[in-house]
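Human: You know discrete backbone vocabularies at least as well as I do. Show me how you would write down a chain together with its backbone fold. No explanation is needed for now; the record alone will do.

Assistant:
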Amino acid sequence: MKNIWPKLKRSMGTSALAMVVGLAALLPAPASAQAPKDAAAPPSSAAPAPAAPAPAVPQAIEEGRPRTVVENPYGIEALWKQGDFVSRGTLIILVIMSIGSWYIGIVKLIEQARLLKDAREADQKFWAAKGVQAGVEALRSDSAFRFISEEGLIAVKDHSAMPKQQIDLNSWLAMTLDRAIDVVNNRLQTGLAFLATVGSTAPFVGLFGTVWGIYHALTAIGIAGQASIDKVAGPVGEALIMTALGLAVAVPAVLGYNWLVRRNRVAMEHVRRFGSSVQMTLLGGGHTPHKAA
């Protein structure tokens, strides 16, 4: 029994020592233990290799807002820069037509609105006055209805001053008022001929630009010797832009012309009724409150 105990102690000690050595092998070596070894290494004559630069990050991605700038080589700006004098001249003509159409349309719309307002004012003030002269003074100085009534008063005075009244007052007054009404009508019609001209000619101006663009496309194909898309895209795009511009100028002009002509007809109905009422009042020898419908 005494001989077994020392052997058991030695075997247990050996097993414990083996476990400690195994654990030490599994654990990482401390940095302090490697420092002397690294310090003892002989210095190298070669310079250390530079570190690889980090990949550049685009600024747009860093900011989180990706921005893409794409220039259209076949737009209106490119048409103006790359086009010849014929293309630029056609474009300028279409722009002038468009500006003139919109200007005339807006001006005529304002004139018509003012005339309709004067018609309502004449119904309220002129026929509520005590006489024709008082009714004339109640209207605005630039009113078309004041102009017609003043012409009627002047016609009556001129007819009474005639030495030989070879024409009756009714015919004389009718002719005078008709001339005054024609003056108002001509003022309303001014500018509508331009709208009609633009509406009828703008598509053909755009068609001329289209034909010129196709001519450039065929020329580019003949020079290159092949019908590649990069050779014909510019001229064909120019042709399509000219067609679109011609229609964009013509359609508003035609619609505006028809609308303004319709409003002129309504406004002139008020003017003619007022003129006939003034004529009947002056022929009656005094003012009667006859209101134009």
Residues 159 and 169 are 7 Å apart (CA to CA). The radius of gyration is 49 Å.
